[in-house]
What we know:
Layout: E1 12-14, E2 21-22, E3 27-28, H1 37-51, E4 56-60, H2 69-78, E5 82-87, H3 106-126, E6 130-134, E7 138-139, H4 147-163, E8 170-174, E9 184-185, H5 190-200, E10 204-209, H6 219-228, E11 232-237, H7 254-266, E12 277-280, H8 289-308, H9 312-320, H10 324-335, H11 340-349, H12 356-363, H13 365-372
Parallel strand pairs: 1-4, 4-5, 5-6, 6-8, 8-10, 10-11, 11-12
Antiparallel strand pairs: 2-3, 7-9
Helix pairs in contact: 1-8, 1-12, 3-4, 6-7, 7-8, 8-12, 9-10
This protein binds 6-deoxy-beta-L-fructofuranose and manganese (II) ion (2 copies).
Amino acid sequence: MNLDGLDGFTIEVPSWAYGNSGTRFKVFTRPGGPRNPYEKISDAAQVNRVTGLANRVSLHIPWDLVGDWPDLRAHADKLGVRIGAINSNLFQDDDYRLGSLCHPDAAVRRKAVDHHLQCLDVMRQTGSTDLKIWLPDGLNYAGQDSLRGRQDRLAESLRTIYDAMDDDHRMLLEYKFFEPHFYSMDVPDWGTSLLHCLALGEKATVVLDTGHHAPGTNIEFIVMQLIRQNRLGAFDFNSRYYADDDLIVGSADPFQLFRIMSEIVAAGAHRPESGVNFMLDQCHNIEEKIPGQIRSVLNVESALAKALLVDQEALAAAQRAGDVLGAHQVLMDAYETDVRSALADRREARGLPRDPVRAFQATGYAESVAAERVGGTQAGWGA
Ligand code: LRH
Ligand code: MN
Ligand code: MN
């Protein structure tokens, strides 16, 4: 089984996956939860330690604000990970009730733009190159504000941020079809995100969060189309059954994850030089956090491994011959291949544990942080 395509493939994990989280009904706390960004990075480093796949951690500002960024960077370095995308946060401030970058009041827009200038500064100090923007702006009622006017304001705000970026910076613009607003979102879909990116310039790319589409959307089509335009900047991987469920990647629909990774492989976008940042965006509510992240990372690896097994020549021949069932069978043969022992062998050959979840549990890390991390307030989704 040739899995060489996995060489150099990495996944970025989110700092907010490790803190306390829940739903709008209940946030659960548990012993050993990280109390600050340093402890979140320490937890994230455990995922990399046993998988060898997750060497970057995304931060969310201001959730992950610290006084000394070079010190946080050094802490990450020491643990063998780097700081990845810097996420701005436009959804936890009273001033943003009617929007942020699209707000009708220029003073509020300025405040939201300034927040991004602060994020750019964090990037300079942490060595990050990706500024990730998810825009929670939108409307709940028809007529509440001008749909068109909001797009114009957004274009202007994004332009100011884009022009402040360094040459090696990228802007990652995430879309979401609903929530927190329900009549319209200001960046509801990949088309809107792409149009803004095209207007801004080459350093602006689209983020595809797998939970941000209407049910039934063909996500792999969007992946293919964005790659064709060279504008697929990043994924936010998670699973969903209903809305933005943020469940473990590949848990709800592993076949969809395989179809997505097949489009990635077909375009060679799994290779590091493609510039696609494979990030996770998950919130574990009831399951253990570090093992949950390990599971997700392994599910992405497994979907990629299967996608690498697709016999591209046989597929192309069947497609040319109009052999509908034959072409479909080529894909299914790859999807139905059991790659578990080949991946375990690969890990072993690299000095990694064959079973990363069990290996993590055997370290006793969870028990030792539960004993150490007493006092202080545990950080959570939103803290
Ligand atoms: C919005 C979102 C976005 C945020 C994250 C916490 O639903 O996907 O990426 O930054 O959740
Ligand atoms: Mn997301
Ligand atoms: Mn989301």
